[in-house]
């Protein structure tokens, strides 16, 4: 399955789940038990409907909102400029959400009016004076902020990690098996001297924008940015699945070559990156109070960094430890070549390394 389509469905099911639950709960909050409350009376078409039917209507509305919002988010993520400021992006998205919400409610009212269950005015401009619509819109806006916060937190800490942090799983160090990739700009010193610090910073920005386009498609987590280097990580099984940890590197390379004219015109160079990959067991712990984050400790990280440092010596773009390569099913479009044993800096035992190429 196309990875873009996979990514869309991943965004879609989360949005559908969140908004169907959110709107269903709104129906419960607003209508459950209202007939029995002293001082309240329900008249008109709603008086004939059971609370469960009303809640079902809201769930249906939530599914429609979830589908539209997921589509909008995916289009913005796929085709929107990453260089647009956060404020401008929020304004554009808010306007788009507002128009989409009106369309959703108009469609829902039309459907249920046609079914003969509810007779509500759904003529053009109905929403301007409809108090229920504005109450729901305020609820949707607040929930949108909650959803955005959750997405930011998940992107910051990695999939599945945010919930574990809320539950305090990493208050004490935990053992995990992960794959790490150290990704570094090749000939960075020379390029920095040629471009100057301002244009060099722009180049790094552009490179990491391109990297972020491929990261979600390969289930990777960005652990750190350090200057012109990015450190990526996968839970061990996710990194092995579909050769994600290797495929990401070549997808990133392809992304830059597709924009080669842009890079040559703006910077006079097509940036190349080198990568080192290794995996194994290490410790993960929650550190800090201000700017709290997860930190990984162990030989896996040091070994990954040292392997990446061997790329220039062997004149290759990507190196991987034999230990990790044995667990990968490299084949099809990928082939590996052994480069023998190397004694990495700070290590007492030699490590077997391989390079990987696309066939």
Q: Can you put this structure into words, describing what you see?
A:
The protein is α+β, with helices and mostly antiparallel strands. The protein folds into 2 domains: 155 residues, no CATH class; 198 residues, Nucleotide cyclase, GGDEF domain (Alpha-Beta Plaits), CATH 3.30.70. Helices cover 54% and strands 18% of the residues. The protein contains 12 helices and 8 strands. Helix 1 runs antiparallel to helix 2, helix 1 packs across helix 4 and helix 6 crosses helix 8. The two termini are 21 Å apart.
Q: Give the overall pLDDT as a whole number.
A: 82
Please name the CATH architecture of the largest domain: 2-Layer Sandwich
Order of helices and strands: HHHHHEHEEHHHEEHHEHEE
Q: Outline the low-pLDDT stretches.
A: 36-44
Strand content range:
15-25%
Overall tally of structural domains: 2
Q: Summarize the main sheet.
A: 8 strands, mixed
Distance N terminus to C terminus?
21 Å
CATH H-level homologous superfamily name of the largest domain: Nucleotide cyclase, GGDEF domain
Q: Give the tally of β-strands.
A: 8
SS element count, helices: 12
Q: Please bin the fraction of helical residues.
A: 40-55%
CATH class of the largest domain: Alpha Beta
| Class inferred from helices and paired strands | alpha+beta
CATH topology of the largest domain: Alpha-Beta Plaits
Computed CA radius of gyration, to the nearest angstrom: 26 Å
What sort of overall outline do the alpha carbons produce when their principal axes are compared? elongated
InterPro entries: A/G_cyclase, Adenylyl/Guanylyl_Cyclase_3/4, Nucleotide_cyclase
Keywords: Membrane, Transmembrane, Transmembrane helix
GO molecular function: adenylate cyclase activity
Organism: Flagellimonas aquimarina
């Amino acid at each position: 399955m196309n990875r873009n389509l996979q990514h869309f469905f991943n965004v879609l099911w989360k949005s559908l789940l969140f908004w169907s639950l959110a709107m269903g709960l709104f129906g419960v909050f607003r209508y459950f038990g209202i007939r029995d409350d002293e001082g309240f009376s329900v008249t008109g078409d709603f008086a004939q409907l059971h609370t469960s039917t009303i809640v079902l209507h809201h769930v249906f509305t939530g599914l429609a909102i979830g589908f539209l919002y997921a589509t909008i988010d995916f289009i913005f993520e796929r085709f929107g400029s990453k260089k647009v400021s956060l404020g401008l992006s929020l304004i554009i998205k808010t306007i788009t959400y507002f128009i989409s919400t009106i369309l959703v409610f108009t469609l829902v009212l039309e459907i249920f009016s046609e079914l003969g269950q509810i007779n509500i005015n759904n003529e053009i401009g109905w929403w301007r004076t409809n108090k229920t619509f504005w109450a729901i819109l305020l609820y949707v806006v607040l929930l949108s902020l909650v959803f955005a916060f959750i997405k930011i937190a998940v992107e910051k800490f990695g999939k599945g990690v945010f919930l574990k942090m809320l539950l305090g799983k990493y208050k004490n160090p935990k053992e995990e098996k992960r794959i790490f990739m150290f990704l570094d700009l090749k000939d960075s010193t020379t390029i920095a001297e040629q471009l100057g610090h301002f244009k060099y910073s722009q180049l790094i920005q552009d490179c990491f924008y391109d990297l972020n386009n491929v990261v979600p498609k390969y289930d990777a987590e960005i652990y750190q940015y350090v200057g012109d280097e990015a450190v990526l990580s996968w839970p061990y099984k996710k990194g092995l699945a579909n050769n994600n940890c290797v495929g990401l590197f070549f997808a990133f390379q392809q992304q830059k070559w597709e924009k080669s004219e842009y890079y040559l015109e703006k910077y006079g160079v097509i940036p190349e990156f080198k990568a080192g990959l290794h995996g194994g067991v290490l410790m993960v712990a929650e550190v800090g109070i201000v700017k709290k984050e997860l930190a990984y400790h162990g030989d896996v990280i040091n070994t990954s960094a040292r392997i990446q440092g061997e790329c220039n010596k062997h004149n290759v773009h990507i190196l991987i430890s034999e230990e990790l390569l044995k667990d990968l099913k490299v084949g099809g479009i990928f082939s590996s070549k052994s480069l023998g044993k190397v004694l990495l800096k700070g290590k007492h035992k030699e490590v077997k390394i391989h390079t990987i190429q696309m066939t």
